[in-house]
Amino acid sequence: MPSLNLVEAINLALREELARDPDVLLLGEDVGLEGGVFRVTEGLQQAFGAGRIIDTPLAESGIVGVALGLALLGLRPVAEIQFMGFLPPALDQIISHVGRYRHRSRGVYSAPLVIRLPYGGGIHAPEHHSESIEAMLVHTPGIKVVVPSSPADACGLLKSAIRDPDPVLFLEPKRIYRAVREEVAEGMEPIPLGRARQVRSGRDLTVIAWGAMVREAQKAAETLAAEGVETEIIDLRTLSPLDTGAILASVRRTGRCLVVHEAARTAGLGAEISALVMEGALLQLKSPVARITGFDTVMPLPRGEHFYLPDAGRIVRAAREIMSF
Amino acid sequence: MELADYDPLQGKRLQVLDPEGNADPALLPALDEEVLCLIFRRMLAARLVDRTCLTLQREGRMGTYPPVEGQEACQVGSVLALSETDWIVPSFRELAAALVRGVPLERIFLYWMGHEEGSRIPKSLRFLPVAIPVGTHILHATGLAMGISYRREKDAVLCFFGDGATSEGDFHEALTFAGVSKAPAIFFCQNNAWAISVPRKAQCAATALAAKGVGYGIPGVQIDGNDPLAAYLATEAALRRARAGEGPTLIEAITYRLGPHTTSDDPGRYRSAEEVERMRPLEPLVRYRLFLQGRGLWSEAWEAEITADIEKWIAESIQKAEAFPDPAPEDIFDYMFAELPPHLARQKASLLSSLQEE
Ligand SMILES: Cc1ncc(C[n+]2csc(CCOP(=O)(O)OP(=O)(O)O)c2C)c(N)n1
User: Fold this and answer.
1) How many Å apart are CA B230 and CA B68, to the nearest integer?
2) Assessment of whether the complete model's pTM goes beyond 0.90
3) N or C: more exposed end of chain B, with fewer CB within 10 A?
4) One domain for residues A21 and A165
């Protein structure tokens, strides 16, 4: 089995889906000849032709709206938005149309499209290149939101996303694009959407994370283990629909819950998960649900980024507080 | 010179200097020698600063940076035609325009070094901060221009953007609003042939981007964007229209991005080295140097002298930028609102206390 990083694993999933289904098309800014600014689509235009791997004009609303039209015809477009910070021009299409088409047409039409979005901070990028606005997307009815945190997950989840009959926003934590390697089997089976993954088991505390934050949680768990605290880590993998079963089962076992996300705090997904835990595991809780998040501010430029991003240190300190509640 | 004589739909293009630096006497603007030399000094300054940024980036002293080499004529020529009170709305590649307007160089360095203080540009300069999202700032230019009309002021607004930006919806909305309101705006498209890896012809099927004005009732003109005098003339004509209440103008300057899109880009993947070599002799400094030389205004000694001045200023500015204190954690919060709301005050306090624990 080849050992792949996240970029290569996503490329493999795209390549295999393109080979499997002639209805799969790729489109976006610089995805063709250039292979994408992160090289995720490298080599695909050479392999499948410029008619299938389409370099589009610079227009996000155009890319998503056109992808919707392609999907209405029954094709399976996979659109790339270069950075999540440039999704806003396309939000109109996503909110006003993509998420509504099945409902609007009473099931006559569906919108089986995928939008790939490199997201998140930690790469010392200019303004608008480090955003993490998944809560806005999760808040939008009719779309699924998926975030892998490892190469194999990225490959398997993307295959499911492409085969899904409904629109899927596929968020790629670009900070770990090349930071992790893992064995990824060629021809691997799709990983079903909507199911969280237990990354580590432990009886004292549940940490819920996704994307690049899973790695920070893992680092924190090592430190905590040395202090005798056993941390369970749940990687959500799909933010919408949420795997509430996995969240509640874990928190009921450990009695403690810490949510970690790099997005802004207020009305972030941590708030939703906290409410879920109150509804489903209140009597098992030994301490209030805690959140480690970004701030309700603009994501700082590179020189101030470290102030904003949650890291293992912040997670450890929060865990200690929870344990001594 | 009448803009109407240069119908982009007929393939007409305004050019004052040919590639050998010969001026068309009928078009040569009446500029005194000092200004003619200033154009060269400013273009050279931009060139040397740009090269410095590339070096700083390679040395790890600067973050991602979008080079401007090849586009100096567009920016220097057009900005020098403005009055100091006219507004400038840049995208992210307007180093030369910023220098002409007098944005302190150490702030420009600081910005690309990843420090928010780099965007603190005195309001009196009427030069807005860098806009990273492509095309979305063009609407701000229209809004500023509509406000100027509302207040019956005489200023105009010069807005820069690339060829790729003309594909974004906001470009079209900006021209729609500006057209109907006859806003005193000048939309200056620097068509540098590429939007990252996408060539101009794959960006839009129109034969001339300047022709896009037609649909909005806005005259458009194509100019040679490597000719600073053409940029000057076209901007001056657009300004006359703006100040006379005749409304906006769309200028498409045909230029060429000689370097990479940004320092994270590898142009070798999508364009040939031969293409770049073909364009190099057409770049603005080469041509303008020949022009000045022909008028007895250029000598090697003179260029060496102004180069030394510029290099000194660059060195001092780097020093100032690098001596600038790191951003304080408070800065994340303190500019979000005029008054810090309670929830941000709590978040700020928690960050400060967690930094103390560390
Ligand atoms: C809304 C938006 N989408 C995508 C990007 C990523 N991006 C940055 S510059 C660029 C190309 C811009 O091309 P053009 O407008 O021609 O200007 P140039 O960079 O050539 O000066 C792209 C796609 C962005 N910054 N903003």
Assistant:
1) 18
2) yes
3) C
4) yes
